Amino acid sequence: MGRSSKDKRDIYYRLAKEDGWRARSAFKLLQLNDDFDLFNGVSRVVDLCAAPGSWSQVLSRKLIEERPENKDKVKIVAVDLQAMAPLPGVTQIQGDITKISTAHEIISHFEGEEADLVISDGAPDVTGLHDIDEYIQGQLLIAALNITTHLLKNGGVFVAKIFRGKDVDILYNQLKVFFSTVTICKPRSSRNSSIESFVVCQNYSPPAGYVPTMCNPLLVDPNQFKSLEGVNRIVVPFMACGDLSGYDSDQTYPLTTSIGGKEYQTLSPIQEPINPPYQTACLLKKTNGLASSDKTEQPQSRDL
Ligand code: SAM
């Protein structure tokens, strides 16, 4: 899809470039913050699965740029498998959130203190096979919860992406073991056509005697929940968040309309990914170097 047709189809993609965000996901965190006041009194934050970095940008702007008096107090640590371009006030770790070594590296940046807030927008590469995608997403959420139990202070907040699929109540129950309040939310900038939602887990209070481990995070037996039916199966609290009179992520807005009084111009992305894993494939495709049974029939791609 060309840049201007994506601009037309996706209002948040376009607004992200206008407002200087690296990805449209920034609006999801901003809208979650509008409803849950996530950044109030926060000085140590971990952004798990952070690349290309729009959530870290939100943290940097909200906690440092808008509150320069807190500059020396605030510590933001961002972790991703992928490299990420630098951001002011953000310490980056290129690592895997399923590894204990990553937890130790994060802790080393907090000088013995625990985090007030852990956020995770983790998503695996989508296969298109919905059951598998949903399962892997669930595993990534459990991995994020797992590493969070090493990092978060009692009373702290954890926010993570969740796919609202058929077993969402199992995941919800896992989270309820550790947090007194768990809410599933759909920011307005998250497309209605997607099962993506976010869990906002407040008041971290692990069970007495719980020892953080990376091995077996499941304190609730999923089979126990699968056997529950009807009213016995938990109805998970759900809320829509963000300004409902604001932009709708599923609607198409004409490019001729100016936003905020400015005439519309197609803009370049704010930050191209650094060394993305698909770089070699793109290069091979551009140079017609991908394996093919008959190369003369392969059209040259001009829209990568
Ligand atoms: N929140 C980011 C932003 O606003 O720019 C977007 C995050 S993107 C949707 C999901 C990220 O999860 C990818 O960059 C991917 O590399 C990362 N990821 C997936 N599995 C991971 C893992 N095991 N450890 C660390 N990062 C992981």
UniProtKB/TrEMBL annotation:
Membrane-spanning parts: none
Pfam families associated with the record: FtsJ
Domain of life: Eukaryota
Entry keyword annotation includes Methyltransferase: yes
Keywords recorded for this protein, A-Z: Cytoplasm, Methyltransferase, S-adenosyl-L-methionine, Transferase, tRNA processing
Ribosomal RNA methyltransferase FtsJ domain location: 21-204
Residue ranges the record marks as coiled coil: none
GO molecular function, one term: tRNA (guanosine(34)-2'-O)-methyltransferase activity
Active site residues of this protein: K161
Localization (cell): Cytoplasm; Nucleus
Example GO BP: tRNA nucleoside ribose methylation
Predominant localisation class: cytoplasm
Reaction(s) the record says it catalyses: cytidine(32)/guanosine(34) in tRNA + 2 S-adenosyl-L-methionine = 2'-O-methylcytidine(32)/2'-O-methylguanosine(34) in tRNA + 2 S-adenosyl-L-homocysteine + 2 H(+)
Role, per record: Methylates the 2'-O-ribose of nucleotides at positions 32 and 34 of the tRNA anticodon loop of substrate tRNAs.
Family listed: Belongs to the class I-like SAM-binding methyltransferase superfamily. RNA methyltransferase RlmE family. TRM7 subfamily.
HAMAP family documented for this protein: RNA_methyltr_E, RNA_methyltr_E_TRM7
Protein name, entry field: Putative tRNA (cytidine(32)/guanosine(34)-2'-O)-methyltransferase
